[in-house]
Structures are given as C-alpha cells and as structure tokens.
Amino acid sequence: METLISSSVLASLGKVVLERQRDGAFVLRGSPPDWYARLTQGVPAAHTPIRAETLFPFLEVFLPEAEGVFRGEGPTRLDSDIWCETAAGGEELPLVASALKLGPRCLLVITRCDELFRERRLLLQRARELRFTYDALSREIEQKDILMHCIVHDLASPLQTILGVLSSLDERHAPGEEGVLVELALEAALRQRAMIREILSVFASEHGDLDATHEETAVSDLRAGIGRVVAAQELTARGRKVRIEEDVAAPHLLVIADEPRLVRVLSNLLDNAIRHSPVGGRVRVAAREDGPNVEVRVEDEGPGVPAALAPRLFQRFSRGNGPEAGTGLGLYFCRITVERWGGSIGYDAPPEGGARFWFRLRKAPASVASLAA
C-alpha cells in the first residue's frame, strides 16, 4: 500500500515509476502521468513486463551503467542526462531517468523535465551568442592589428632615409650646437626604429608567420646567442658605466628555439637590465641546465619592478612609469615567443634587491642536436 501511495505521488509530479524484476524486465508501479500514455499509446496492465530500453531507446546506454546501483555497488542513485522522445502528434518530451536502490527494490524513475530542458536550451543559445560575439571581436581585433602593422611598416621606409641623412651629418662632426642637435635627432630616430622593429616582431609572433613544425625542430646554441647579445650590448653598457658579467659554464647549450628570435629575447632582457641599472652597477647573465630544460637568468642591481606592476609584467602594453619605461611590448614579445617554443618566462624579486628575469627552454633532443651540430 505504501509503495502504491508513493508511486501515485510521483506520478502526480509527472514521474513514471518502473520496478526492476529479477530477469531485467520492469513493471509499472502506480498510475503513470498522462504524457506516458501519449508516448506509449496506451498503458500496459499492472505486472506486465516492460523492456525499458525498447520503450525508451536512450536507456540502452543508461541501463548498463545503472546496473551498479541495482546491485548495491557504489551510490544508491544514478541520474541520466536529458534526452527527448516524440509522442503522438509530434509532441516533444524531454526526459531524465534515475536509477534508485531502495532496500530490496530496484526502481527506475522517468521524469518529464520541460523546465530544465528549457533552461539548458536557453543556456546553449546564450553560449552560441557569446561565441558569435567573441568571433566577431576577434576578427575586428585582427583587422586592427593588420592595419597597425601596415601603418608601422610604412613608417619604416621614410625613417630609413632620415637615419641615413642624420648619420651623414653626424659623421661630419658639426661643431657647437648644430652637432648636439644632430646627435639628439639621430638618437631619437634610432629609438623610433627600435620601437618599429619591436612592434613588427610582436605582430609576427602573434600571427604565427612561422611554420609550427619548424619551431618544434629549430635548434639554437644558447651560449653562442648570449655571447652575441652581450658583445652587442657591451658598448651601450659602458656608456652607462654598467658592467656585464657572463656566467655560462657549458661549452654548448642547444635548446629548442630559432636563433633570430632567441637573440631578440635575450636582447630585450639585457637591454632592460642595462637601462634600469644604476651608474656603476652590474648586470649578470647566467645559463644553467635544469633537468630537461635550460634556464637563463638576467639580473640587475636596479630598483626592481614595482609590486603593483609585477602580476601584469608580461602582458601586452604593460609598462612602468619614468623615462626608462619602454613601449610595453618587449616583455610581451618575450613571453609569447618563449611559450611558442614550449618554454616559460617569469620575474623574481631577489631579497638582496634588484631584478631577476628568467626563462626556461627545452633542451634539444639528442637526435636533433646531433643534426644541428
């Protein structure tokens, strides 16, 4: 009697209660809701065995999973995902099944869930709308990036002419104020050329103009790259009375990286360190093998990175204040480039002061390294 009352209550809530028999068939318990009769085109007599998977084809997948519940293994309840059946007249019936173990009884409860189905459909529609908006914004950003790239690229051509003229004037060693003005103009033009190159490098890395397969197999000698960059920056460091120390023990450090971009990454980090070093300070460039990776550290004795700036240091257009601040693209370029090689990059604030930038690159596999040697 108690079971019948419970089944009737569940039926009033739009649920069909089926009790599993020893042979795997089910028997309807209580009075089913109206939708069940429309779906099955009639209600079977009490105690008539029902093959649930024939009545609801979706259950062919769910019932094997529900056997664990019926055998008393694991949880006492298992719910299916939502599926839809079509009743007479084309009526759509969203349903969900629950397998229950209640004492000796094994029950399968089928619930009509129109509200839950509607909410999921609205959620899916919203997700599609957001995806459409995201794709549209991505296309717009890409178009603006390409436009910026074209503008910056076009600016480079007349700048080369300006640099050529200023260099010629500078070589004449004009006396007095005229010579000072030429030097100032030449220095500004060189800075502008460096900024243009930085922007173009970021664009090239973001838009993947490199072949991915090539990036996976490109091998560079990190030690040789460090030597080249240190030599190139030596004159600038002397001009600021900054000493560069190179600390690389291994004769060769072959890593997964293409040489031009590796040199660019090293140059950015070393240039930052020199610019932020105090007069008479020291910049240290070190590289060590670390398991399957090689870690490079660039340390200086400058004021370090403000705590508020550190979390977004490697984001696009993230830059500090003051005359030594760059374009906000240099460290961003370093991050996206190193990550494309499967490496990582970061910043530490040493307890003794100063700044420490590091990046890790994968060592070249022995087979690739032997080919590159």
Automatic annotation (TrEMBL):
<keyword id="KW-0597">Phosphoprotein</keyword>
<dbReference type="Pfam" id="PF02518">
    <property type="entry name" value="HATPase_c"/>
</dbReference>
<protein>
    <recommendedName>
        <fullName>histidine kinase</fullName>
        <ecNumber>2.7.13.3</ecNumber>
    </recommendedName>
</protein>
<dbReference type="GO" id="GO:0000155">
    <property type="term" value="F:phosphorelay sensor kinase activity"/>
</dbReference>
<dbReference type="InterPro" id="IPR003661">
    <property type="entry name" value="HisK_dim/P_dom"/>
</dbReference>
<dbReference type="InterPro" id="IPR004358">
    <property type="entry name" value="Sig_transdc_His_kin-like_C"/>
</dbReference>
<dbReference type="InterPro" id="IPR005467">
    <property type="entry name" value="His_kinase_dom"/>
</dbReference>
<dbReference type="InterPro" id="IPR003594">
    <property type="entry name" value="HATPase_dom"/>
</dbReference>
<keyword id="KW-0808">Transferase</keyword>
<feature type="domain" description="Histidine kinase">
    <location>
        <begin position="150"/>
        <end position="365"/>
    </location>
</feature>
<dbReference type="InterPro" id="IPR036097">
    <property type="entry name" value="HisK_dim/P_sf"/>
</dbReference>
<dbReference type="InterPro" id="IPR036890">
    <property type="entry name" value="HATPase_C_sf"/>
</dbReference>
<dbReference type="GO" id="GO:0005886">
    <property type="term" value="C:plasma membrane"/>
</dbReference>
<keyword id="KW-0418">Kinase</keyword>
<dbReference type="GO" id="GO:0009927">
    <property type="term" value="F:histidine phosphotransfer kinase activity"/>
</dbReference>
